[in-house]
Amino acid sequence: MALVWVITGASRGLGLGMVAALLEQEGTIVVAAARNPDKAEALQKLAERYSGRVHTVVLDTSDEASVKAAAATVEKHFSDGVDFLINMAGVADSNFVSALQTEGSEYLRVLKVNTVGSFLVTQAFYPLLKKGNTRTVVNVSSRGGSITNHRAGGPISGKIVAYTSSKAALNMQTAVLAGALKDDGFIVVSTCPGWVDTDMGTRSDFDMPGIKPDLTVEESTKRHLALIAKLTKDDSGKYFSAANDKEIPY
Ligand SMILES: NC(=O)c1ccc[n+]([C@@H]2O[C@H](COP(=O)([O-])OP(=O)(O)OC[C@H]3O[C@@H](n4cnc5c(N)ncnc54)[C@H](OP(=O)(O)O)[C@@H]3O)[C@@H](O)[C@H]2O)c1
C-alpha cells in the first residue's frame, strides 16, 4: 500500500528536498504543492523521472480559494485519502531588522503565509487526511518561534518579529489542532528543520559572524523524515527539532 504525502512549498528548498527524498523511498506517492509548479524546473524534472508517483498542484497558502481548489483537485486523484500533510511553505521578513522598524503590512504578509496559510491547508485537507492511514500533520515551524528561546537572548533577539511570531502562533495552532483532532486519532506536530542552506537559510542579512547554516537540505530532510517516521499519537501537540530529535520548549 503506497502512502500519499502532501507537501506545500515544494518548488525549492526544503519542500523540494523532501519531495526528492520521499521519491527515493519505495511505496511513496507525493503531491507536490507549489505556487507555480510549472516554473519549478527541479520539481518538473522529478515529475518526469518519477512519472506517476508525483502529482503537482497549484497551491498558494496566502490565497484561500487556491488552497480549496488544490484540495478539490487532490480529492479527484486520491479519493481514498492522503496520509501525511507537511506544511512546509514559508516566508521570512523582507529585512532582518529591529522589530520597531517592521511595518504592519509586512507583519500581516508573513502571518498570512506561515500561520493562517498552514491552518487553511490543514482545514482543507482534513477530510482527505481523515480517510488516510496515518492522519499526520507536520507544521514546519522554526526554533525561532520558541518564546522561551527568544527570551534567552541570542543573535535574533529583538529582530524578525513577523517570522518569529508567525512560527510561535503556528506552534499554538499545532497545540490547538492536536486537541481538536485527538478524537480522530490525528498526530499534529511542529518541527524545526535545523538551520539549513536554502534560499531562506543563506540570506545575506541572516549572516552572523561565525554562524552559518549547519545542515544541507539532504541532511536536514533525512533527519526530518526519520523524526516523522517515529511519531506516535503521544507526540501530538509537541514541538521537535529535526536536527537532534529533541523537543523544543514552546
Ligand atoms: N532554511 C532554514 O534554515 C529554516 C530554518 C527553520 C525553519 N525553516 C522553515 O522551513 C520551511 C522551508 O524553508 P526553506 O528554507 O526551504 O525556504 P525557501 O528556500 O525560502 O523556500 C520557501 C518555499 O515556500 C514557498 N512559498 C512561499 N510563499 C508561499 C505561498 N504563499 N504559498 C505557497 N508556497 C509558498 C516557496 O515557493 P516559491 O518558490 O513559489 O516562492 C518555496 O517553495 C519554511 O517554513 C521555513 O520557515 C527553514
From TrEMBL:
The keyword Cell inner membrane does not apply. Residues 1-15 form the signal peptide. Keywords: NADP, Oxidoreductase, Signal. GO terms for molecular function: oxidoreductase activity. Coiled coil: none annotated. One of its GO terms (cellular component) is cytoplasm. This is Uncharacterized protein. It comes from Elliptochloris bilobata. The lineage of its organism: Eukaryota, Viridiplantae, Chlorophyta, core chlorophytes, Trebouxiophyceae.
